[in-house]
Amino acid sequence: MQPGDRVHVDRGEQSYDGVLLPSSTDDNLVIKLDSGYNVGIDREAADVDVQEAGVYDIEGAQAEESASEISFDEDLPTISLISTGGTIASTVDYRTGAVTAQFDAEDVLRAVPELAGLANYRGRVVANILSENMTPDVWQDLAEAIHEEIQAGADGVVVMHGTDTMQFSASAMAFMLETPVPIVFTGSQRSADRPSSDNVMNAVCAVEAAKSDAAEVMICMHADASDEVCALHRGTRARKNHTSRRDAFGTVGAEPLGEVVYEDRQVSFRREYRERGEANLELAADLETEVELVKFTPGTDPAVLEAYDDKAGIVLEGTGLGHVNTDWIEYVDDLIDDGTHVVMTSQCLDGRVCDRVYDTGRDLLDAGVIEGEDMLPGTAKVKLMWALANAEDIEETMGTELAGEIQDRSVPWT
């Protein structure tokens, strides 16, 4: 029994058929199943039958992967590939059978060979973290890295990022950077060892978007369940709406900014965008980290707000037009009197805050609450962090559109 053999494995009441992969320990067998998934099995508990020897040349596959190299073509644009972690550039590690993240440009091209010939690439690692471990410190590092790459001549930037918090990071870059070139976030909902992985199409479409004329911070992910089109969402208006579907992301309150057709690599836009070269490159990476997002639900004790009495800012995610229980108003008033900036947003997916309709809203305005217009709550938090560190008039800044986060009108678009 050698790596590369096709085997049938019985373990208790379960049976597995697939190709034996190398394992990092003698205690486990690693099998690549016919479905494309890997499974690890305790060797002592397994009964193995070799059905066919040498059906897969593991060593040859590894040598072929290592032979990949990057060539420079003067006729192609230069795209900077920046990794923060995530699964989009993951490959199967044949030592362990596990899916591991790869980071430099050569690794990305080995994982996604379809990228070859689309652009010249530079690879850079900012972080190697799970998406849920993203922090404002990493946002600052990322913004500085993007700034340096554009300064060095990159014609576009693709940020590889875990999907769970991608919308927050994209919003942060939109406020921290004035960019003359596209900055495109992309990721993968399903890892590279799965037959339904979306890493190849998302990466290819993201590079095409980074070559486009839209100097915006965008998120590029599957537009639907098929492998035909990727949607381009403005970073400050995007939301992850599904835990596992490949078309997990949507633009809230409008249609996506544009799309990329995978087969013919065509990029098109449906709405106005900031054109390439329109803005001068600028970086404002300071952030006030003492900002929290608090969601109101019926029955929540208003005393929870006492935990935030030393915060610089709070974004409230209220109901409807921007409401909380009337018992909360006294606590909100105290926070604002003590110097905390409080911004109101809505739990509704569409529409904007208007606290002038009902008594509760008017009382909140009298207390000094800042209306968050139609900003997404997460985007409002990121913007407040940025505003507190960079703006003089917080209320005016929060009510002013800076990066497409506020729409002129809230109207049905479908």
Automatic annotation (TrEMBL):
Residues 1-49 form the GatD N-terminal domain. Keywords: ATP-binding, Ligase, Nucleotide-binding, Protein biosynthesis, Transferase. It comes from the Archaea. GO terms for molecular function: asparaginase activity; ATP binding; glutaminyl-tRNA synthase (glutamine-hydrolyzing) activity; transferase activity. The active site is at T87, T163, D164, K240. SMART domains: Asparaginase. One of its GO terms (biological process) is regulation of translational fidelity. Its EC number is 6.3.5.-. It catalyses: L-glutamyl-tRNA(Gln) + L-glutamine + ATP + H2O = L-glutaminyl-tRNA(Gln) + L-glutamate + ADP + phosphate + H(+). SUPFAM superfamilies: GatD N-terminal domain-like, Glutaminase/Asparaginase. Residues 291-396 form the Asparaginase/glutaminase C-terminal domain. Residues 79-272 form the L-asparaginase N-terminal domain. InterPro entries: AsnA_fam, Asp/glu_Ase-like_sf, Asparaginase/glutaminase-like, Asparaginase/glutaminase_AS1, Asparaginase/glutaminase_AS2, Asparaginase_C, GatD, GatD_N. Allows the formation of correctly charged Gln-tRNA(Gln) through the transamidation of misacylated Glu-tRNA(Gln) in organisms which lack glutaminyl-tRNA synthetase. The reaction takes place in the presence of glutamine and ATP through an activated gamma-phospho-Glu-tRNA(Gln). The GatDE system is specific for glutamate and does not act on aspartate. Belongs to the asparaginase 1 family. GatD subfamily. Heterodimer of GatD and GatE. This is Glutamyl-tRNA(Gln) amidotransferase subunit D. It comes from Halapricum desulfuricans. The lineage of its organism: Archaea, Methanobacteriati, Methanobacteriota, Stenosarchaea group, Halobacteria.
